[in-house]
Design a protein that fits this description.
Layout: H1 7-22, E1 24-25, E2 28-29, E3 40-41, H2 42-52, H3 59-71, E4 82-84, E5 110-111, H4 120-136, H5 139-157, E6 184-185, H6 186-206, H7 211-228, H8 238-244, H9 249-258, E7 268-270, E8 273-274, H10 280-288, H11 294-306, H12 351-363, H13 367-382, H14 409-424
Antiparallel strand pairs: 1-2, 3-4, 4-5, 6-7, 7-8
Helix pairs in contact: 1-14, 2-3, 2-4, 2-14, 3-4, 4-5, 4-6, 5-6, 6-7, 6-10, 10-12, 12-13, 12-14, 13-14
Amino acid sequence: MSSTFPPILAEARQRAEDILLSNSSELGLLGGGGGAYRQVWGRDSMICGLALLRLDAGRAVHRNSLATLERYQSSLGNIPHNVGFPSEPDQALVAYGGNLGHEEPSGEAIVDNAHSGCIDNNLWFVLGHYMHWRETGDLEFLRKSWPALQRALLWLRYQDSNECGLLEVHEAMDWADLFPNRYNSLYPNALYAGVWQAMTQMAAALGEPDELYAETAAATSWKINQVLWVGPEVPKDWQWIDRNRREWLYPARLVETELVNRPYYLPYMGFRSYGDRCDVLGNCLAILLGIPSGAQSTRILDYIKGAGLDSPFPVRSLDHPIQRGDPDWRDYLLLRNLNKPFHYHNGGIWPFLGGFYVSALVAAGRQDYALDQLIRLTELNRQGVNQAWEFNEWAHGQSGRPMGFARQSWSAAMYIFAYDSVMQANTPYFNTLRVK
């Protein structure tokens, strides 16, 4: 079947594999080559497991990343944002003197403390273990790490400060770590539903009780739909909300009155407030994890295509960048020229996000369009600032020209995952994670 696809796709996959494996280290997978992001990042390394685990030479690298993150897990269960050697030169850390920290006499790696308590490290750590177990069947490795997984989940549960069943997240606490999504936000809570589903299956494999995990996975998915979907596809259970979660009444009534309906999940529901943009990564992950119905998935993907979010390349991070004067504007968006409109998190194009988008199209049965977008994603990754095939970090949301650092691990990894999804008409790991 693959012989019917343009040969450049196979070339791109090989180049992506070469970059990904070249970014391995004794600690595990580094965030990038070319002198930037020279640490094992909690979210990045685990996302890259979607590809590493499909490569014979990549499984040991992913296993090392898991071991490093567990080794530096805090006493409360928090998985570090990233771990690296303090003397390693890093172009991305120019604001901190060009490296992660001061030289340690022991020569030991250290944990980054420059970021805002990122919540998705724990989420992806659980999913990274799930993927490793699914791919390798190694129950002994899973059993050894089970206490660390339970601590990671307990830390997450304490981020649900009002015990509503959804995570409450402060600003700049997820993958978009310079962006004002907050409170009951989409991206981390979609992953949270997947984490409960992953824990269900891993617990069952280990002979541990799994009923609570399964029940909570379904409840989390249901609550995401109740809080963050506005439209006839999800009738609100006002009686349940009034009886159990009265703090949701005001914002839920507000969006029903002001928005009436939207063809995507809202990016967040705050205290007496809400966001009204299409968070593309959050919506794609929701589709991959089986949270929306078929009708909802249709509306989401139709909107992304119709709004041109996959043009010139797949895919922009959101539909409407925050402008100065908007309620969500923060002056920190100007930091290092990163989050001006159509830059970085604020409407920039991310190749790793494009990989999730292509895979979401496959999961929704849009195979032909997924191939079309894979071809465009190939062209995006072939671009470079200095040479071809740089697999850059991100590109400008309007021009499509690369602006981030080159040789990024997750840009390469998510190309591999998207390629394999299209070739197999399937989404590995997610196909067993969908919340029932």
